């Protein structure tokens, strides 16, 4: 079940001794992962660049729905921006709870998918009442008339410090961030209008209050200061320079 909504993928509950697996690290693997799994090595259809790993990471070519590891082989599993691509989300998530006792899932939120739609994304996803709710785009008639991906993924991150702060203080605005333990509560294409309405009807103030984080001024100010410090540290970090092509 869910036990937290981390601020970012860099704020996870991973202890130093944990053996960590990442599913679909792509061109931007999590530096904390010890093992990285990816399904495609010859196609970048599902990612924005060629697969990379850090020198300390082992790369394994495998499918997320059929992981080549024994039960509970890992202490923690990371899955960032992969779930929205898979054909069988139930099988995919069951494998994660089989090989690890806890983990982190990040996907585009409903807002993120409307602003930055991708042809390779099969699902619209949102956390509601502690559960991951997924609808096949075709099932609910998803139509994105414009793709603002370059604005929010390329232009603003490079041009706006204010946007960088917002990314770190309101990550759940465009992303679904979900840290789990023991099991993952997920509903796929639920027929209930209670869930479906969040995906198909305009959001009012009550919906925003329910689905988006609410902070006091003091908490927001503290988070913003922390975000500024993180931005400065990131600016001077050279970790990405150590990335290399995986050994397959």
Automatic annotation (TrEMBL):
Keyword Repeat: no
Organism, scientific name: Pedobacter caeni
Domain Methyltransferase type: 53-103
UniProt KW Methyltransferase keyword: yes
Gene Ontology biological-process annotations: methylation
Superkingdom, taxonomy of origin: Bacteria
Name of this chain's protein: Methyltransferase domain-containing protein
Keywords carried by this UniProt record: Methyltransferase, Transferase
GO molecular function terms noted in the UniProt entry: S-adenosylmethionine-dependent methyltransferase activity
């Amino acid at each position: 079940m869910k036990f937290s909504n981390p601020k970012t993928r860099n704020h996870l509950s991973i202890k130093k001794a944990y053996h960590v697996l990442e599913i679909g690290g792509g061109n931007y693997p999590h530096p904390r992962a010890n093992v990285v799994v990816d399904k495609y090595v010859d196609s970048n259809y599902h990612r924005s660049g060629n697969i990379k790993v850090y020198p300390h990471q082992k790369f394994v070519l495998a499918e997320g729905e059929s992981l080549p590891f024994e039960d509970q082989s890992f202490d923690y599993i990371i899955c960032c921006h992969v779930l929205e691509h898979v054909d069988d989300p139930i099988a995919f998530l069951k494998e994660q709870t089989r090989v690890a006792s806890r983990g982190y899932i990040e996907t585009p939120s409903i807002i993120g998918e409307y602003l930055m739609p991708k042809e390779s994304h099969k699902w619209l996803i949102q956390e509601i009442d502690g559960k991951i709710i997924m609808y096949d785009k075709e099932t609910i008639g998803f139509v994105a008339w414009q793709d603002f991906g370059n604005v929010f993924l390329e232009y603003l991150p490079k041009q706006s410090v204010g946007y960088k702060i917002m990314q770190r203080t309101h990550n759940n605005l465009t992303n679904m961030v979900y840290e789990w333990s023991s099991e993952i509560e997920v509903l796929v294409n639920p027929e209930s209008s209670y869930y479906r309405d969040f995906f198909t009807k305009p959001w009012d103030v009550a919906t925003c209050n329910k689905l988006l984080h609410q902070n006091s001024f003091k908490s927001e100010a503290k988070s913003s200061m922390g975000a500024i410090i993180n931005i400065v540290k990131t600016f001077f970090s050279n970790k990405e320079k150590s990335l290399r092509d995986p050994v397959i």
